[in-house]
Specification:
This protein has 61 residues and is mostly helical. Helix content is 75%, strand content 0%. The protein has one domain (3-60). The chain has helices spanning 3-13, 20-41, 48-60. The longest helix has 22 residues, at 20-41. It is elongated and about 45 Å long. The N and C termini lie far apart (44 Å).
């Protein structure tokens, strides 16, 4: 699905009284998710083990 089609489908699903700012937030969220998935596909992801170590470091500080 193209980015344009993704946005059109999103707008169709939102309630009629949605604000432009809310639409923008939804679009930004979808864009971030798509970028993250593309990075994972390119092997740029972070392993769960690395994330667990990061979180542990944050908690113990």
């Amino acid at each position: 699905m193209s980015d344009r089609d993704t946005v059109l489908e999103l707008v169709k699903r939102l309630p009629a009284n949605v604000t432009l700012r809310e639409i923008l937030r939804e679009i930004e969220f979808i864009a971030a998710v798509k970028e993250g998935l593309a990075e994972i596909d390119q092997g740029k992801g972070v392993s769960i083990e690395s994330v667990e170590q990061m979180i542990e470091g944050w908690i113990t500080k």
